[in-house]
Amino acid sequence: MNFISLLNKWYKKNKRPLPWRKTSDPYNIWISEIIFQQTRIEQGTNYYNNFIRKFPNLEKLALSTEDEVLHMWKGLGYYSRAHNLFFTAQHIYKDLEGIFPSTYSEILKLKGIGKYTAAAIASISFNEKIPAIDGNAFRVYSRFFNSEKDISKSSTFNYFFNLMLPLMPDNPGDFNQAIMDLGAIICSPSNPKCIICPIQVDCIAYKLNNQKILPIKSSYKKITELNIHYAYIKCHREILIIKRGYNDIWKGLYEFPKFKDIHEIYKISNTYTTTHKLTHKILHITISEINLESSEFYTIAKALNATILDKKQLKLYAFPKPLDFFLLYN
DNA sequence: GATACGTGGTT
DNA sequence: TAACCAAGTAT
């Protein structure tokens, strides 16, 4: 039996019962694929369930607002995913008659969808024979073929893509998901469980005992540090918030007004500091609480073009994690 | 092709 | 603990 048959047999018995596997509707598959970009199953599963409950189909998503979508995405990270998801839902609804594109090349044109996600949707929802290469697949293929190519290079993606393309079986969706499940359950990054691997017999890295040093991945991310000083401006139960732009972190989320020298102007009644670590930067955040009389409060709200928010309405707005945490106790 | 983009779990 | 990493994409 070849490795594809062995893998298929293994997958039928061992596939994980994940919620989005109950359907092949491209809408559901699309949502799941976006949520799970760079995101663990354990972290994203509740988000998937909540998202589908709130937006059960493409029309419901397209007719919502970006703030509603961001609110469902709050805490998940990589917020451009939510921004692009909403954009693409509206594009399909308005320009494509609400019909999800059905081929790899058409799906690839959609905003927020790259080569991996397009292949996943095309193979799972439309049975197109196209390899979906994510981090799991990179690892499995690197070991199976004993490849020492650097998986952070785009040329390596093309290498595996072209290698697997002619090998794709008649059930490409199951095959792609089987590779991913194998990578998650058996062919794990550290301590791969080669002893119980269904395709061990054909795995060249196992034969050469290279499984622990593969895949090769060059990576060095420079971490920068940044100070952010927020003014938490209050008037009784009302506070000021501002929506962030799209060129930086926390795209489209809400935050407090930012100041450099707020202490020189107003009286600070409380100060809260925290350190928040992203993958690529460390944020030193200071939040200064300032209580104002209503006339001054409304004047500064206007000057800052800030949104005045009754704290009872907090649930309608998406805040980044550290501010969400702060608001929980203030 | 290199870098920016979150959050939380693992080693 | 710091580094690494998880169903990647846009620029």
Automatic annotation (TrEMBL):
CDD domains: ENDO3c. Residues 35-185 form the HhH-GPD domain. Its EC number is 3.2.2.31. PROSITE patterns: ENDONUCLEASE_III_1. SUPFAM superfamilies: DNA-glycosylase, Nudix. GO terms for biological process: base-excision repair; mismatch repair. The keyword Calcium does not apply. It comes from the Bacteria. Its cofactor is [4Fe-4S] cluster. GO terms for molecular function: 4 iron, 4 sulfur cluster binding; 8-oxo-7,8-dihydroguanine DNA N-glycosylase activity; adenine/guanine mispair binding; metal ion binding; oxidized purine DNA binding; purine-specific mismatch base pair DNA N-glycosylase activity. InterPro entries: A/G_AdeGlyc_MutY, DNA_glycosylase, Endouclease-III_FeS-bd_BS, HhH-GPD_domain, HhH_base_excis_C, HhH_motif, MIG/MutY, MutY_C. Keywords: 4Fe-4S, DNA damage, DNA repair, Glycosidase, Hydrolase, Iron, Iron-sulfur, Metal-binding. It catalyses: Hydrolyzes free adenine bases from 7,8-dihydro-8-oxoguanine:adenine mismatched double-stranded DNA, leaving an apurinic site. Gene3D superfamilies: Helix-hairpin-Helix base-excision DNA repair enzymes (C-terminal), Hypothetical protein, domain 2. Belongs to the Nth/MutY family. Adenine glycosylase active on G-A mispairs. MutY also corrects error-prone DNA synthesis past GO lesions which are due to the oxidatively damaged form of guanine: 7,8-dihydro-8-oxoguanine (8-oxo-dGTP). This is Adenine DNA glycosylase. The lineage of its organism: Bacteria, Pseudomonadati, Bacteroidota, Flavobacteriia, Flavobacteriales. The gene is mutY.
